[in-house]
Design a protein that fits this description.
108 residues; mainly beta; three-stranded antiparallel β-sheet; 7 strands
């Protein structure tokens, strides 16, 4: 993925005025055979509120929920550095109906 391009993107271009709640990381990193897997629960957000970017082996999951008045009411951000032995071309991202984002990549 190119930097700045999200798979799930609902960026309206508006700037947040304040943040009332910020989430701590509640995810899981696993190595299963030759697969590196990173999962994170963003179920408090709609898919359009979630932006995932990847650049130089750095993966970032960012979510922001706006209130009806345009203020940020909920936010989540987490960065994960992919291991150096991960093939960056093999990175796939999916979001399940339960709100869990899963990133998978093959190790070389």
């Amino acid at each position: 993925m190119e930097k700045g391009r999200g798979i799930f993107s609902g960026d309206s271009g508006s700037k947040p005025r304040h943040c009332s709640r910020e989430h701590k990381f509640e995810g899981k990193i696993q190595v299963i055979g030759d697969i590196f897997q990173f999962t994170v629960d963003v179920s408090e957000f709609s898919p359009e509120d979630v932006i995932i970017t990847s650049s130089n082996n750095l993966l970032e999951v960012h979510a922001e929920k706006l209130g009806e008045d345009g203020t940020v009411t909920n936010t989540f951000s987490h960065r994960c550095t992919l291991p150096s032995d991960v093939d960056p071309v093999s990175v796939t991202v999916s979001m399940g109906s339960s709100g869990v984002v899963t990133v998978r990549a093959h190790r070389m």
